[in-house]
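Two proteins, back to back. First:
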Amino acid sequence: MKIVSNLLKDSHDEWLVRTTASFNEINPIVDRIMEDESVEGVIMTNKEGIPILTNVNLVGATNYGLSMKRLGDMTQISAKEIDPFDEVLVLRLKTKKIEVMVVPNREFNIIVMQHSRGSNKKAKHEHRNGNNDKP
C-alpha cells in the first residue's frame, strides 16, 4: 500500500486506495451477512450516506442511507456530550417488524436490516401452539 500511495499525486487518489483496501477487508463480512435468512437487506454507504453497495432497491437504500447518516450523527454527538472520549460502535434500532444495525466507519457505513427477533419468536411460538389468531 505504501508503494502505491507514493505514486499517487492527488489526495482523492489516496482516499480511493484507502477506501478500496477497507472495502476489500469488509466485503467477505458483508457477503456472509447477506447469506443469513433473517437479513432483509444490507446497504454500504459512503461517508455522506450515499449507497455504494446494496441488495435493496436504490430508492430505499438512498432513503435508509441518508436517514441513518443523520441519526448516526445525532447519536455520535449525544455520546460525545456524555463522555468526550467515547464513540458509537454500533447503532441498533428495533421496531416491531425490523431491526436496523448501523456500523460506522471513517470512510463508509454498513446498514443491516433484518426481521425483528422478537416478532419471529412470537410468530413461531404461536404457530407451534396452533394459535394463528392475531390479538
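And the second protein:
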Amino acid sequence: MDNDTPDEVFAELKTKPLGGWGVAQIAVGTGLAVYAMWVGILQPGFRKVPLRLQVPYIPASKAQVNNVMTLLRGRKGGLVDLGSGDGRIVLEAHRQGFAPAVGYELNPWLVRLSHYHAWRAGHNGKVSYRREDLWKVDLTECKNVTVFLAPSVLSLLQEKLQAELPVDALVVAGRFPFPDWKPCRIEGQGVDRAWAYSMQAQRQTTTRKNDKLTVMDSDPDNELTKEK
C-alpha cells in the first residue's frame, strides 16, 4: 500500500472506529450547530477560505502520533504543527523534548480543546496553541514541521515550505503524503502511515529539475525549443 490514493485513505477513515471519546472530540472540534452559525453568519471573514483549503477535523490516533514521533526521533529544537487540531501532536512533541512546541489552528473550538488537553496532562503553559492562518505563519526558522492536512492543501503547502524552511528542516506528514515530494522515510501502514521529507533533498531535486530545463531551453536542437 505504498501508493495509497486519497480516495482509498478516506475510505479507510470512514470504516475506522473512532470510539466515544473520538466522537465527542469531533463534536467539540466542529462546535456542531453553534460553530456552523458562527462560521456562516457571524464570521464572514472565515468564509473567504476556499473550500479546497478547508480541512475536516479527524482526531489523530495513537498509532499516527507514534509514527510521527518515530520519524522525528533524534531531532532537536522546536516543533511546529500546522493545522494542529486538538493539539495532541504538539503535546507529545513537548513530552519528547521539543521546545518550543507550537500548534497553529484556525478553528477556535479546537484551540480551546488543545488547551484543555494540555491542562489535563499537566503541561498547560509549557506548550503553545495559536489561532492563526497557517498560510501567514513565518516558517523561516522552523526545523521540525508536522502536518495532518488534506491532499488539496498539501499540494499548495509544499510550495510555501520549500520557499521558507531552512535547508536542514524535516517535514513529517500524517495520513496523506505530499503529492510531489519523495519521502526519505516512511513509518506505519494504511491510514496510520506517516512520511518524512528532508528539505535538503527536496531542494536538490528542484535544482536538478531547473538545471535540466535550462539546458533544454538553451539547446538549439531540442524539438521543444524549436516549437517555441
